[in-house]
Structures are given as C-alpha cells and as structure tokens.
Amino acid sequence: MSAILPPRDREAFAFLGLGSNLGDRLAYLQQAMELLHTRPSIRVDEVSSVYETAPVGGPEQDPYLNIAARVATRRSPRRLLAACLGVEQALGRIRRERWGPRTIDIDILLYEDRVISTRRLQIPHPRLGERPFVLIPLLEVAPGKTLPDGRSLATILGGLAPIEGVHSVGSQITAPA
Ligand code: GSY
C-alpha cells in the first residue's frame, strides 16, 4: 500500500554510524539504539556487530567501540539529525574539543540516495570513504549498497587495505523490539 502514500509519509532508510570511547561503551551504544527507537517516526531496523577500533584523529584517547545501524524513518534528514543530537545529549555527550573522546557519537552516514551539503549536515558523511571503522560495520547492515555517485561500499573498503585497528568483538547490541 505504500505506493499510494505521498512521498513525505513514506518511510526512508537511513544508515547511522555510532561510536563510544568513554565510560561503559557498550551500554552507551545499546542505550543510543533504544532511545532512537523510542523517538517518533524512527524505527531501528538492524544493528551491526560491535568493533573495537583504534582512535582516528584528535588527541590521544582510548579505543572506540563502533557499530552501524539501519533505521527506517518518516523524518527528513534534518529532523533525523535533530533526533541523533538529542540522543547524544541525553547520553551526556559534551562537546569539549573537536575529535575528542565522547560517551556517544551518532552520525548520519547515508539517507536513501540523497546528497545534502549544508553547514550542519553533509550526506553521505564526508569521511565515510576514509574510515574502516565506519565502512566495516556499515557493510554488515548495507550489503551491496552503493553511494549516490555509484561507487560500492565494498570497493571503497577494498581500496583501504591493509586494514588495521578494527577488531570484531561480536554481536553484543540487540536491535530494539
Ligand atoms: O567520528 C566519530 C568519532 N571518532 C571515532 C570513532 O568513532 N572511532 C574511531 N576509531 N576513531 C574515531 N575518531 C573519532 S573523532
């Protein structure tokens, strides 16, 4: 029946990248998934397994746990971003320094095949193609996915080999029911 709905009422699929390197990292990732799922018009559909990853950029800091998630949403990209920022705040994220340690980071990586470039929001995420800690979990929840420019995620990841500093620690986050 979705074909007869006007576009603004249809669910879109978006892919999120999440990371945590402060406190109980696993608990923050699980809570982020639960909180997003309770926000209006967001359904967390699938969650990747968890990877422990060496920090990239910023000051010396502890390793991250990273995951990716597929969400179905009736929100616009801008309203989805607002929900992600709200969950970051609820989980005590403090923006002290750029690329510094954080309880939780939630990035919109992809939103359908949309390309958006505003000061506050860039989709696809501008550093997506450079970061194995993003691409590896993302491929689990978006197998076969291509970027709006036609490049496949798998091909981009292949170009980053050899990959170091990304280790699977299993499927420890459950997708909210
Ligand atoms: O961009 C997200 C925050 N972040 C991460 C991260 O999530 N994982 C790793 N391994 N390094 C990072 N550096 C930053 S900033």
Describe this protein with a few key phrases.
24% strand; 8 strands; alpha+beta; binds 7-(2-hydroxyethyl)-8-mercaptoguanine; 177 residues
Description:
With 177 residues, the protein is an alpha+beta fold. Helices cover 25% and strands 24% of the residues. The strands form two sheets. Strands 1, 2, 3, 4, 5 and 8 form a six-stranded antiparallel sheet that branches. A hairpin with a 4-residue loop joins strand 6 and strand 7. The structure holds 7-(2-hydroxyethyl)-8-mercaptoguanine.
Nearest-integer average pLDDT: 93
Q: How is the biggest beta sheet arranged?
A: 6 strands, antiparallel
Which regions are unreliable across 5 or more consecutive residues at pLDDT < 50?
none
Number of strands: 8
Question: How many H/I helices?
Answer: 4
How far apart the termini lie comes to 23 Å
- Strand residue content: 15-25%
Run of helices and strands: EHEEEHEEEHHE
**Shape by Cα distribution:** globular
Query: What is the C-alpha radius of gyration, as a whole number of Å?
Result: 16 Å
Q: What structural category arises from helix and sheet content? A: alpha+beta
What share of residues is helical? 10-25%
**Chemical compounds bound to the protein:** 7-(2-hydroxyethyl)-8-mercaptoguanine
